[in-house]
Design goal:
The chain has 432 residues and is of the alpha+beta class. It has 2 domains: 309 residues, Alkaline Phosphatase, subunit A (3-Layer(aba) Sandwich), CATH 3.40.720; 88 residues, 2-Layer Sandwich (Arylsulfatase, C-terminal domain), CATH 3.30.1120. 25% of the residues lie in helices and 12% in strands. The protein is built from 10 helices and 11 strands. A 4-stranded antiparallel sheet has the order 6-7-8-9, covered by helices on one side. Strands 2-1-3 form a 3-stranded parallel sheet. The chain has a two-stranded antiparallel ribbon with strand order 4-5. α3 runs parallel beside α5. It is globular and about 60 Å long.
Length: 432
């Protein structure tokens, strides 16, 4: 809610500091292999400029070393054409070849989007002089779910845990029914509009997802091995994370438009060869995606802009926990649309500006606050977790009040602060 670029297609104000622009101050040329899905600010482009006709644009400051956008990906399509494939447009390129959702993709594993991106990253980075900064963004695992052989059936669906279900029954939140209708199981695939959420089908889609994750894992391993073979690994900082999770049928939900941990909890792995105090260990402290950019800038020796809300993780990597480290993690979700009101937006009778929620987690409790007068949710993660909303149970009001106050403090602290640390004085502009 700071910059309000909250959905694909919502412009990002052009003067917002970002990782790429700040990294340039340390002499790095930020290279993008993949996508950033940054919608350009229409105030600085002519209405006819092509960048204003697609949300799949490059974040300012990055050099697009390889274009790998979900709906376009022209270099990959050209590669497939050169290999003799008949390549349909988006989204048909991701339709399984067969009569089942776990039928293979039309391309072989060595020609997949994941393999192609990896090949180009390795070939390009190893040819560049030292001092590069590469942002490598795999689209997988991501809908539409389709995997090449053998990844399409690499995971045995029978060995997977069943989807989680709610214990609340009739008392479930009014957001859930329209959210389920908005993104049913069929929305995760191309070519199976009548797919039903049976236990068998849910397990099959979850298996495809994990197969795609295994494919990414394999190819990321190739990058690591290439760095080692070239003698670059011990001089390279590596950060692995993701932008969102997937519900995969938990609580009858698919996609990412949810308040559940499965949508928000993503991995964060950092390897800094110069900071080995906690090498190979996991930390159970609250961190957020907004911490990644400040952490990298701290490592580069670049000042962190005031409007970057995150905290540098460098002290944690050095084995120290700052006394003022955050006690909560905070997440937000926008589920409305200004042009085509979403189903939850319509069903709940909300305006676009009201169609959002925020989640605060303190390690035991998760509080979900809905805008527009919708009731809150409270989950005791030490109890039944997200399977039961305890917001109306005895004793819960004190927890809700405490976490609501913490959420309000957070929003007040992190309001848009372009010049909040800047003063114009008799001596000129002073920043603290």
């Amino acid at each position: 809610m700071n910059h309000r670029s909250v959905r694909n297609g919502t412009p990002l104000p052009h003067d917002k500091p970002n990782l790429a622009r700040e990294a340039r101050k340390a002499g790095y040329l930020p290279l993008l292999y993949g996508y950033t899905d940054t919608t350009m600010d229409p105030r600085i482009f002519d209405a006819g400029d092509p960048v204003l006709h697609s949300y799949e644009q490059v974040m300012p400051g990055f050099v697009e070393a390889l274009e790998m956008r979900l709906e376009e990906s022209w270099p990959w399509r050209a590669h497939l054409e050169a290999r003799g494939y008949k390549v349909p447009g988006y989204p048909e390129i991701f339709r399984p070849v067969g009569d089942k959702p776990d039928s293979p993709a039309l391309y072989r594993a060595e020609d997949s989007d994941t393999a192609f991106l990896t090949d180009r990253v390795i070939g390009d980075l190893l040819a560049r002089p030292r001092g590069w900064f590469g942002h490598v963004t795999y689209i997988r695992p991501h809908p539409p779910f389709v995997a090449p052989e053998p990844y399409n059936r690499l995971i045995d669906p029978a060995g997977l845990p069943p989807a989680k279900t709610s214990a609340d029954g009739e008392s479930e939140h009014p957001y859930l029914a329209p959210a389920r209708a908005r993104e049913p199981i069929a929305s995760t695939l191309i070519g199976f509009p009548d797919l039903e959420p049976t236990d068998e089908n849910i397990a099959m889609i979850r298996a495809i997802y994990l197969g795609l994750a295994a494919e990414v894992d394999h190819h990321f391993g190739r990058i690591v091995e290439a760095l080692k073979s070239a003698g670059l690994y011990e001089d390279t900082i590596v950060v692995v994370s993701g932008d969102h999770g997937e519900m995969l049928g938990d609580y009858g939900l698919w996609g990412k438009h949810s308040y559940h941990d499965a949508a928000f909890r993503v991995p964060l792995i950092i390897r800094d060869p110069d900071r080995n105090a906690l090498a190979g260990k996991a930390l159970d402290l609250p961190s957020e995606s907004v911490d990644v950019a400040p952490t990298l800038l701290d490592m580069m020796g670049v000042d962190i802009p005031d409007t970057m809300d995150g905290m540098s993780l460098v002290p944690l990597l050095e084995g120290e926990t700052p006394a003022d480290w955050r006690r909560y993690s905070y997440s937000e979700l926008e589920f409305g649309n200004p042009l085509h009101p979403s189903l939850p937006q319509r069903e709940l009778g909300l305006s676009c500006d009201q169609s959002n929620l925020a989640v605060i987690r303190d390690g035991r409790y998760n509080l979900v606050h809905f805008n527009g007068g919708q009731p809150p949710l409270l989950f005791d993660m030490a109890g039944e977790g997200e399977a039961r909303d305890i917001s109306r149970e005895p004793g819960s009001q004190d927890v809700i009040l405490r976490l609501t106050r913490a959420m309000l403090d957070h929003r007040m602290t992190h309001a848009e602060g372009r010049f909040s640390h800047t003063m114009v004085t008799a001596k000129g502009v002073v920043r603290n």
